[in-house]
Amino acid sequence: MSYLEWAESQLAEIELLTSMFPTAEELEATDQLALAELRNYVEGSASAGSPPPSRPQFLIKQKLDSFILSCAYPSEYPAVLPEITVRCSGLSRAQQTQLQALLNAYLTENCRGEVCVLSAVEWVKDNLLLFINRSFSEAPSPKEESTSAQPPEVFSRLWIYSHHIYNKSKRKNILDWSKDLGLSGFSMPGKPGIVCVEGPQSACEEFWSRVKVLTWKKIMIRHREDLPLDCQGEGSRCVERIDSLRKFTGFEEAMFDPHGNRGNHMDLGQLYQFLNERGCCEVFQMYFGIEGR
């Protein structure tokens, strides 16, 4: 890749982050000039052989979770990792050092070659509680903590329609967010793009709130299903009930014989068969206005 392609990825990620953290209290560009120069570099006639003149730097502030991420882009990012530092006033120096080391290890193992600031934010959110007011070794696992939370009261299944899903970063976000939120379902990239997520209503709503703020030509919830769980106060029973209502095992990106000039179109007959095998073929007509076969 060239410096220009790296700069384009950087600018796209900054625009995504700005849409998700729209106020200065959430995202602060500490060097406005560097950001303006990056934009001019991408939009102008920059030479791919020379890097941008300066490095964008910004802070992501999560008041609810009590931490700040300080981020700086090397010219070759995302081919190389960004410089990300975690700051949390609720941690001792030793705990903060350990959290930083684990974050660096996570990014090194999972994020090289991909934009990853949002992944870093989500990782810190998921792991910060392991360090607050207790040592790392004594902390319960995230799974143990989640089972002690207030059990959900409604199971939801959202059928989302997009004019198209091509962008690799968006496709990765859809996969990562569904996994982070414990949702099952599938996404079908191409034109049109289809996403189905199912699980606790609050997790489905959080997924939709993240997805809908990305830049889309058109995206909507085409159909939704909401089913009462009738298991208030019984955490383990709610988990069993949710699992019994799922039509999908885990979450996957589903491809159905891609074709067309850019490989953007899927075989809708195979999509119908995929839905039929999971007992939800009726949504095919909701999406396309015709009965599948």
TrEMBL record:
It comes from the Eukaryota. InterPro entries: Phi-like, Prp3_C, RWD_dom, RWDD2A-B_C, UBQ-conjugating_enzyme/RWD. Residues 12-131 form the RWD domain. This is RWD domain containing 2B. It comes from Amphilophus citrinellus. Transmembrane segments: none annotated. SUPFAM superfamilies: UBC-like. It holds the Pfam family RWD.
